[in-house]
Structures are given as C-alpha cells and as structure tokens.
Design goal:
mainly alpha; 138 residues; 73% helix
Length: 138
C-alpha cells in the first residue's frame, strides 16, 4: 500500500510545498498579522520576530505535511478534484485544524480559540491548495 514514493510526482510536491509556504507568508504577514499577535498575547502594533527559526521551522513542517499528503493521495489512488477536496477536508479539519486548537489550549496562549481559528484555517486552506496541486499534476 505504501510503496508509492517512487510513483509520486516530486515536482508537484515541490510546487505544492512552495504554494503552502507562501500562503503562510501572506496569511501571517498581510492578512492576519494583528489578530495573530493578539491571539498570542502580544502587542498588535509590534512586528513579530524575523528570526530564522520562525521561517525555517514552518517551512520544514509544511514540507513534511505536503509529502505526507502526497503519499496518502497516491496510496489511496485519489485522482479526481472532488475526492482530493474531500481528502483535504478530512485531513485539514480532522487533523490539522483540530490539533492546532488542541495545542493552543494551554496557559501560554491567552486567546486559544482565536489562535486556533487563524492558524487552523491557514492549514485547512493550505491542505486544499496542496491537494488540488498534487492531483492536477498527478
């Protein structure tokens, strides 16, 4: 079932990863920078740190998520946009969104549901984007 790594179109993985990662940059730097900082209990007017960890860490995570999604798409033989959409919803809501909210519910994040909404929605839309790209290039 999981002998699919040699079948994967790795160019599609690279393109989907770049799209997912760039969505994150747009999401957090342009669409929701202030609400995101508020969710973390930070001053909404002060820009976030641009330390390399905050760029490389999310890049590695989105790459792993993209590769995992590709492996599952190929293992499950998902070839249509409608099935890829349902798969993205299942993974996006069932794992990524829900786990993001779960992680946020701790004493270190003062607005866990705001954080979960912002970050979980990013991952849900990212999953939709990734899976559409992977299926389009399969």
């Amino acid at each position: 079932m999981f002998n699919v790594l040699s079948d994967i179109n790795w160019l599609s993985v690279l393109i989907a990863f770049v799209a997912y990662f760039l969505l994150g940059a747009v999401w957090y730097l342009f669409l929701f920078p202030k609400p995101y900082r508020i969710s973390l209990g930070r001053d909404p007017e002060v820009d976030a740190s641009q330390a390399l960890l905050y760029i490389i860490g999310p890049a590695v995570c989105t790459l792993i998520i993209t590769i995992t999604s590709a492996a599952w798409l190929y293992a499950l033989n998902i070839t249509s946009y409608s099935h890829a959409f349902v798969f993205a919803l299942v993974v996006g809501v069932g794992y990524l969104f829900t786990n993001t909210v779960n992680i946020a519910i701790n004493p270190n994040i003062p607005r866990p549901f705001l954080y979960g909404l912002i970050t979980g929605s990013y991952h849900l839309i990212g999953m939709l984007l990734v899976n559409m790209i992977l299926v389009a290039m399969k």
